């Protein structure tokens, strides 16, 4: 069904170029309905496979680039940490040395004054100054230990952030590979297995839920498809693919009004669903309804 849609989409510009009179939407629909055989060919399938191969090569190149950037970031972080620790150590040693030197100058000056004034209790003076110097040096050491602790906490937080980014990158690359694999699977059950793996890595993925609903419709399970699409809409209320799959599921159950309502919402979100609905076999029961014809008919603007 999707191969037929891709073939029609690629060959439609050629048909319009060959016969300008086919620009009218009703003439195009008439030609599509009168086709005796599908318009797609192995060339289209080959083109899709080449695009998938190019996409895989681009993902592998981006993965290598991300790994190289992460390695460079870790190297720069380690160098900055070493430089910062050396600067802090030099500053602490220099400040302590200057402080002790000034204290000795103060002690010498005060001792000279006391000798001049005739104070004989030099031992008491020495003990007091020693205690004062020890308290000041202890305060300075405690202050710099606290600063170093805060620096270590910041560096630890950055390291954890880098690790989280690496994990997210690995998950993203694995999810891209699974999407490519799902596009290559031919059976609905195999696609559902791939979508389940994607949802295990990223549970809040409305795209995976809506495409899993599409595969459920292929298995003839419209109720299951409706449940999956409603979960997707809880995560993203403007997910056009989920609305479109809900229209197909309700059409399969014979619920015409619900199917038309969801189809209209999907077309409002993305006009490309108009062309999909016109040729989708899942909506075959709605084609004779005037409301359906109104939805899938393009509204051409009148020339000025």
Topology:
Blueprint: H1 2-18, H2 25-33, H3 42-117, H4 122-184, H5 188-201, H6 206-218, H7 222-235, H8 240-252, H9 256-269, H10 272-279, H11 290-296
Helix pairs in contact: 3-4, 4-5, 5-6, 6-7, 6-8, 7-8, 8-9
Q: Which tags fit this structure?
A:
mainly alpha; 304 residues
Euclidean distance between termini CA atoms: 39 Å
Poorly predicted ranges: 1-22, 300-304
SSE run = HHHHHHHHHHH
Task: Characterize the largest beta sheet: strand count, sense, and whether it forms a barrel.
Answer: none
Counting structural domains, the number is 3
Secondary structure class reads mainly alpha
The fraction of residues assigned to DSSP E strands is under 5%
Shape: rod-shaped
Give the tally of β-strands: 0
Mean pLDDT rating = 76
Percentage of residues in helical conformation: over 70%
Number of helices: 11
CA-atom Rg in angstroms:
37 Å
Please provide a written account of the structure.
The chain has three domains: 40 residues, no CATH class; 122 residues; 112 residues, Serine Threonine Protein Phosphatase 5, Tetratricopeptide repeat (Alpha Horseshoe), CATH 1.25.40.10. The protein has 304 residues and is an all-alpha fold. Helix 6 packs parallel to helix 8 and helix 7 packs antiparallel against helix 8. It starts with a helix and ends in an 8-residue tail after the last helix. It has eleven helices and no strands. Helices cover 82% and strands 0% of the residues.
């Amino acid at each position: 069904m999707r191969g037929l849609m891709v073939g029609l989409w690629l060959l439609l510009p050629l048909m319009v170029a060959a016969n300008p009179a086919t620009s009218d939407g009703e003439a195009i629909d008439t030609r599509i309905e009168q086709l005796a055989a599908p318009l797609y060919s192995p060339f289209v399938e080959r083109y899709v496979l080449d695009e998938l191969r190019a996409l895989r090569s681009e993902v592998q190149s981006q993965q290598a680039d991300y790994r190289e950037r992460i390695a460079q970031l870790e190297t720069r972080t380690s160098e900055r940490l070493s430089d910062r620790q050396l600067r802090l150590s030099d500053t602490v040693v220099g400040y302590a040395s200057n402080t002790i030197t000034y204290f000795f100058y103060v002690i010498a000056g005060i001792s000279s004054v006391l000798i001049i004034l005739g104070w004989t209790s030099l031992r008491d003076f020495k003990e007091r100054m020693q205690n004062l110097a020890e308290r000041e040096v202890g305060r300075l050491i405690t202050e710099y230990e606290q600063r170093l602790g805060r620096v270590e906490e910041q560096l630890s937080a950055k390291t954890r952030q880098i690790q989280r980014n690496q994990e997210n990158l690995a998950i993203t690359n694995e999810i891209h590979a699974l999407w490519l694999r799902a596009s290559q699977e031919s059976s609905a059950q195999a696609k559902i297995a791939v979508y389940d793996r994607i949802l295990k890595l990223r549970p809040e993925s409305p795209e995976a839920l809506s495409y899993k609903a599409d595969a459920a419709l292929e298995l003839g399970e419209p109720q299951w498809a409706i449940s999956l699409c409603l979960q997707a809409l809880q995560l993203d209320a403007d997910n056009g693919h989920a609305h479109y799959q809900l229209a197909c599921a309700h059409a399969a159950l014979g619920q015409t009004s619900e199917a038309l309502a969801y189809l209209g919402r999907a077309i409002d979100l993305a006009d490309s669903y108009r062309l999909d609905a016109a040729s989708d076999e899942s909506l075959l029961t709605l084609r004779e309804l005037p409301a359906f014809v109104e939805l899938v008919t393009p509204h051409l603007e009148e020339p000025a």
